[in-house]
Amino acid sequence: MKLEHSNIAFNAEICGAIDHILGPNHHDPRDRRSKDRVLIRLERQTRLRIAIVQFGVWYTPSDSPENHGRTFSVEYEQECSTAYIKVAHEHRLICIIIRQRETKAEYLILVSFSSIRRLEIGRDGSKRPIVIFDLYSPPAFEKTSDNNNGTHRRGRYKTHDRISALDDAHARISPYAHQLRIVLADQRDFEEFEAMCQGVKCHRPSGCCVDAYAMRFFRKDFIDHVSRWTQRMAWKTAFQIEAYLRCGLLTTHDLLVSLRKPIESVIIDYGSEASEFLLLFSSALRTRSPSETPHACLARVRAESPTIKPLKLAKGHILCHHVIIMPSRILLEGPYPTQSNRVIRRYKSYDPTLVERFVRVEFRDEDHLPYRWDITVDGTLFLQQRVGDILSKGFEIGGRRFEFLGYSISSLRDHTVWFVSPFRHPSLGFVNAERVRASLGDFSKLLRTPSKYAARMAQGFTSTDPGVKIRCYQWEEQPDLGPHTDGVGTISPQLADMIWEERCRAISDLRENCVKPSAYQFRFLGYKGVVVVDTRLKGIKMRLRNSQRKFPVHNIAKAEFEIARSFDYPNPVRLNRPAIMALEDLGVKKEAFIHLQEAATEAIYHASESLKTFADLLKSHGLGDMFRLAFILEQLAKLGHDLKDYLHREATENVFLGRLVRDSMNHSLREVKYKARIPVPHSYQLVGVADEGQAYINEGADPDKVFTLKDGSIYACIQESADKDPVYFEGYCLISRSPVIHPGDVQRVYAVGKPPEDKICFFRDLKNVVVFPAIGHRSLASCLAGGDLDGDTYDVYYKNPRLLPPLKAHPADYPPGEVWTLDEGRGDANVEDICNHIVEFINSDPMGLLANRHLIIADQSKDGVFDERCMKLAALCSKAVDYPKNGKPVDLHDLPRTSSRLKPDWHKTEVTADSHDPDYYESDRALGHLFRAIDLRKPYDHLINKGIPPTSPKGVVPLEDPITRALAPLVRYMTCQGDRSPGSVNAQAQGLHARYVREMRYICMTHTLIDSPEICLTEEEVVLGTILANCTQPRWRTDRTQRMRLHSEMLVRDMRSHIMSDEGPPAEPQLREGLWSGWAMWSWAQHHRDEEFIDSFSLITLGVMFDCLKRLGALQDV
Predict the structure, then answer these.
(1) Comparing 74-83, 428-437, 956-965, which segment has the lowest mean pLDDT?
(2) Are the C-beta atoms of residues 412 and 792 closer than 8 Å to each other?
(3) Is the pTM of this model over 0.85?
């Protein structure tokens, strides 16, 4: 069928019939032609010739007038005989091409639109036209390949290589200077350049008058001078000074001339905390005004922070330095709180300062995102040289040499590894990376399979919390129950109690807010997996299985039970795109998903109705946990408060709460729209364990007296808190494991409910786990996306009959993947093989590509996820999941193609959400309807309409706000203080708040998505634990958000410990003392409402008071 444009109008019925024939992938060709005409015009436009390319940095001369502005220091310059600038609109790039006359090779400087802070145009002293690119991050560099025929490349279309620098001279300064300045060859090209930027909707250039001088701040002799100076310092101090250079905060002139003596004075005056001060100085440098010199900035920070004290960390956490390896530079971050592991705790127990010998190293592109490149670019050689050389040869920071140590499996997926600087130990002698790895266990049987060898060592680098010590006679092995107990063992109630008590000592409020776990994910010697409580076991006993033993560890009398995760709370289930696509193709009506989304969005918009609805939203989307925000709202409701006046309830009149409501709504709506993360009521994500009833029978129990699960049945019981009753699941449920790729990854099962009282039952008292049957030729866990029981969690959909699919798909059954084995005649695996595996993994990690293409093909095909192409991609995804362990990359040649070059509208990202983009079509699948149903309008007007004040009421007298008036009589009664008031002067509160502000500034600055002084997280984002900025890579935002949450959690715990002691369970006198201390802090904060971060500081004090009041029983009858 051929259709052409006509000016004759057809009736609606004919147009509807044609749209039906063309299907969802049809798009008005006029939109496409319009965009093509723009692209063709841009491609054919005059390429603007370039005379000179320069890289440098911004600086402010010390003798410049106050409002003189910035000056550009030229650190590298290349005069070009043949060079030009053009726009690559499809890739949203400005491309500078330099052609070498002798070799005919072309070098490309690629500036992404998103990396441009601003564009400036003007003329230099010789009246030549210049363009300055003020950049957030460096450009990418490419070179035309010397091997264009594809014989030694990953694909025949690979015509360019990624490189780190243009030449050796550029390579020397690129780690420090990435701002770009070009001199155009033609005087008349200003207008052409402006038109070019306007045509592609790039940044509009602004006029400027910027001086430029060849200061050469980063000459090798200057860098060497700084290095010799810092090598005389403590390493953590030298780290901060080197970070100033590498992060573009200072130049060598700043450090060696204006700041050398002041910094040496800081080192003397602040002693062991000098590095903490210099870290604060780093934050101040990022946010200082252009008129403030670095010297004046340092003096200001000294005046604001005469003393420094580091954060008090929770047990099992360390302050870790981070090193980010990028194509052209190395960035230094931290230290900030990080969960520790077995290796670090071992050496920290000897000497706490040895923690500084271990650093986290991340491999990232210039924009902090994972490495990625166009189809024409081959990154193989680049990764071998840049990443491979770092891994095999190490690097030097602050005068210390670091060498590759190891990784955990999860960190490898994030392209993150551990490095160590060799040190001398008082009893172990010289310790380097090789000796640390050798101490982890016996890997002799794995030395022919490098990737598996590294994966087993990875257990030592898994992030865990320390637990209890278990002696060799207190644990034993027991046989597996066929394939049904893969990864799960048992522990006695007494041992479970010991582990729980240790956890409660580490986290003071755990006992009141969580349920004692029935299961733990753990690491122990060479074992890993899950242990579940077995009431048959007496005393201190742990029984592990052969399937949990990954390598032997010899001659150990006792070892630590390391906690990777404790399952003390049932996480609510939220749908996602792969699950929705699979369920729809299994026969679930799209109306079922639309109904759930409508309920979810209604709950989001109703969050501004009351404190209860706001608290429910926070719990549903996992927000505000670090500050215990939902708990605080619930206690405020008990005091008779609400977000607005309603019957007998008084409005809190707290503007900060209003902003928190607004941002939580924004976060939640974005999660639903762009990820289809739709909460499902009555449904939970639970860790899987096995029914041990068959083990009872094998050990002699009467089968007729043991209640066991039948094939196709499960047991699940959830309990959200100790003061709530358990809920037993009974009836048909849906169970799956994310991500759902194959339609058989979703299965219908029967939940047996509460076990009968007249029979022996292993799982009778288990909470917040899902128990699988231990019979049949195949385990139920393996039917769910190839899961097992070593810590995998499963989504259990309960009381949602509309989600039960009428169709049933057989689960996928893929053969075990081939393992990378060294060739015969080659020696055993060594660290070089492991480094090569990391490089290959970074270059070949295909999981995102495969899952993305799978969803698009399913959307476009009439067969959905049952399409043969989707089935092939599902098999490839299974291989990709095992790639980190088996070392066999997925063959990406001849991947199934999509049916159309257009993409479904639900595939739009937050930064490409133009509803009229002709590259997208309107999907008729459930995901399309769900995507289009949400309008991400700013919900702030909605809040104003609901009565929450947008600004603080004027003239409110301190301590006369509604919250204080409600709390005052309770606090005075419970503390027996009468009418005594803490007053507005409180040196302890003032000092604690100053400490809080310093750390909050650092959190807001260091955990952003973009390195830029003008971009900081807001106080509301930190409290909620979200980052609201748009991002093309949600995984990057998730990583930064997790780090920010951990950092803020440590800060809140530190603040709480200063207000009320967290040493052991508090007795009544301690609770009353903590209540009064919290009241004093709150009162001081109400007298200082204009202070920085005072709202979140007040939340912490409010949380302490409510915690004390609840434990004292003062809120139960209010």
Answers:
(1) 956-965
(2) no
(3) yes
